[in-house]
Amino acid sequence: MEPRRNIQYGAHDGTALVGDLYLPESTGPHPAIIAVHGGGWQLSSRDVYRFMGPYLAAHGYAVFSIDYRLTRDGENHYPAAVHDVRAAVQWVRSHAAELNIDPARLALMGDSAGAHLGALVALAGDSPDHVHACPDDPYANVSTSVKAVVGVYGVYDLAAQWEHDVVSRPTDNITQNFMGFPPMQDRRAWYAASPMAHATFANNGTAFLLAWGTEDDIADPGQSKAFLTALKQARFFVRTVVVPSAPHFWMTDPIEEPGSFTGFLAPRLLRFLAQRL
User: What is the crossing angle of helices 113-124 and 80-94, to 10°?
Assistant: First the structure.
């Protein structure tokens, strides 16, 4: 199927925010997934979901794969991307009727940095830290709550990722680039910007599916395991998909390719969505 491309869902600081929409051909209203690409908050695009978008649409789920402002040249530090993802959820919910989408059945899905953004918006998008950030947005008063989150090899504790990157990529510390300052300057701000901080009883109405590869050397699998523990402690519905031998950067793999890591995830993802979305 061909998506509807370059749909503008908002504009922040003079930047048009766009996404590609994959719609099921069956009658609706359909549940919908807002997909948020990874890339260390500074690279990549909505094209990451060029295979997963059609796959999910063929199984009855609308997918809106978005671009957001990237942290580059000293611009667009946190929370810029968070505000963009919030705007995408608000746009989908506000246009649900014309898109034949059920506004009560929305989910966020992201890989790597996109998993961080999706989880954070799901857990804290309507918190005082974010809800009044963009009062001029046309849908600023629309809720960003979602029923489910799918996080694939995500970053859920920024300070932990910073410590990992100090060793593994000292010349390109992606979390410090994203935040704009080191954790030693304001540790509370780093924690508040992490989904881990918001895995609380008050937020446990959102279901989670966490997927990661056993051989990931970019986002330590310990990130997902620690977040899993925090979610369980707060009584979230949470399921996991542990992908044997998988590294990082495989959400762009064709699903039908033999041995594809996305092919391993796909049927398990459908089972989770059928249960919780």
Answer: 60
